[in-house]
Amino acid sequence: MELDPSDITPAINRLKRAQGQLAAVIRMAEDGKECKDVVTQLSAVSKALDRAGFLIVASGLEQCFKNPDEAMDKKEMEKLFLSLA
């Protein structure tokens, strides 16, 4: 099943923000910033990636309901969900 990019625009935007946040985390680590500050920003990046992943999976589920002939089987969908846990 292929995703429609227009359906996952919010996830794409979130991923782009996370990309910028990750670059900032790398700079912070290279500049020797406080451990607590680096880990806090790293946590924010991780949450942004998780949310983007869930948005993409939710979009895929919605597409499965709209197009049952192209739907993934239950095992494949379960594997996708668990990969984000």
**By helix and strand content, what is the structural category?**
mainly alpha
Strand count, sense and closure of the main sheet? none
Q: Tell me the number of helical segments per DSSP (H or I, 4 or more residues long).
A: 3
Q: List low-confidence stretches.
A: none
Protein name: Metal-sensitive transcriptional regulator
InterPro entries: Metal_Tscrpt_repr (IPR003735), Metal_Tscrpt_repr_sf (IPR038390)
Family: Belongs to the CsoR family.
Keywords: Copper
Written account of the structure:
This protein has about 80 residues and is mainly alpha-helical. It is about 75% helix and about 0% strand. Helix 1 (about 10-30) runs antiparallel to helix 2 and helix 2 runs antiparallel to helix 3 (about 75-85). The model has no long low-confidence stretch (mean pLDDT about 85).
Question: What is the element layout, followed by pairings?
Answer:
Elements lengths: L8 H22 L4 H32 L7 H11 L1
Helix pairs in contact: 1-2, 2-3
Protein name: Metal-sensitive transcriptional regulator
Pfam families: Trns_repr_metal
Keywords: Copper
Précis, in short:
Helix content is 76%, strand content 0%. The chain contains 3 helices and no strands.
